[in-house]
Design brief:
The chain is α/β, with parallel strands linked by helices. 37% of the residues lie in helices and 21% in strands. Helix 2 (52-60) packs parallel to helix 4.
């Protein structure tokens, strides 16, 4: 069977398979923010660290012409060790599939944790395009390269076994993070990421992130584009680097384990990183996030 035959078979099954109503239904009266493009990554469905509730809330309060799933949406590494798939994770898949069905362009760029899907690059399943990487043209004329980013991770490239060890340690911290936030909710406090706070306190982690951002931006400059959007390191960020006298934008859309971030493009081409826990806090305080004036993020200065 060829890849094209396999794609046709899967598409036929998807087309005939009814979308089972989610456990948490979409709110009919929710006001949605309209964006031209949304980027999300590092959801890690199939793990207890996934902040499914926050992502469901995000999907229920936003809409876009295009959505990029920039890798590690499903955590195949963890699912191989132990199957974990609660109803909330199914609700996320349901919402993404529904967007594809109603005409939203959905582009899935697998990462290292869902690398098993890379074999389907170039195919289209139920309206979801599978790509190894993509190029995105913003409304104001910039051309951005979109990829997960594990291609530039020295640990992934040179010491894959170490990446698996690090993944195990990371998920132990995620379990602790769940416990800490359950206690915070009991106290009436908002979500807070233990691992994110620790990562920004550790000098080696800060140095790794800075070097990673520089390498990814340089690769974008060498390809002649105006910038890059990636994920992988669970650190939402906007920086501007210089390559051969040209500014190169580096955007990282964060994750839905620690920071619960998304990158969005407004209809005029402006881009913004959303920290969704803060957006919920603002909404619950009585603000109207759907009509809040949008401002482009300011870049952190490149060293």
């Amino acid at each position: 069977m060829t890849s094209a035959d396999l794609a046709d078979l899967i598409n036929d099954n998807i087309a005939s398979f009814p979308l089972t109503p989610p456990r948490v239904p979409e709110p009919e009266s929710a006001e949605r923010r309209s964006y031209r493009t949304i980027w999300i990554s590092d959801v890690h469905l199939g793990t207890k660290g996934c902040n499914a509730g926050l992502l469901i809330d995000f999907l229920d309060h936003t809409d876009s012409e295009t959505i990029y799933l920039v890798g590690d949406i499903i955590d195949g590494w963890r699912l191989k060790k132990k199957f974990y798939w609660p109803a909330a994770h199914n609700d996320i898949v349901w919402r993404i599939m529904k967007r594809a069905r109603r005409g939203t362009r959905v582009v899935y760029i697998p990462g290292n944790h869902d690398e098993m899907l890379r074999q389907f690059t170039g195919l289209n399943f139920g309206g979801i395009e599978i790509r190894r990487a993509a190029f995105h043209d913003t409304a104001d004329g910039r051309r951005l390269m979109v990829l997960h980013g594990d291609e530039f991770d020295a640990v992934m490239l040179s010491h894959r076994w170490l990446a698996f060890v690090g993944d195990h340690a990371y998920h132990l911290m995620m379990k602790l993070n769940v416990t800490v936030n359950a206690f915070r909710r009991w106290l009436g406090k908002p979500y807070w990421s233990l691992s994110k706070a620790a990562k920004h306190k550790v000098k080696n982690a800060v140095e790794f992130i800075g070097k990673y951002e520089e390498v990814v931006a340089r690769a974008a400059g060498e390809r002649g584009v105006d910038g890059v959007v990636c994920g992988h390191i669970h650190t939402a960020e906007f920086r501007v680097f210089e390559h051969n006298g040209r500014p190169i934008e580096y955007w990282n859309d964060g994750d839905w384990v620690e920071g619960c971030n998304a990158l969005v493009e407004h209809h005029d081409g402006r881009m913004e990183i959303l920290h969704w826990a803060d957006e919920i806090k603002r909404r619950e305080a009585g603000g109207d996030p759907a009509t809040r004036p949008a401002t482009a993020d300011r870049p952190r200065e490149a060293a």
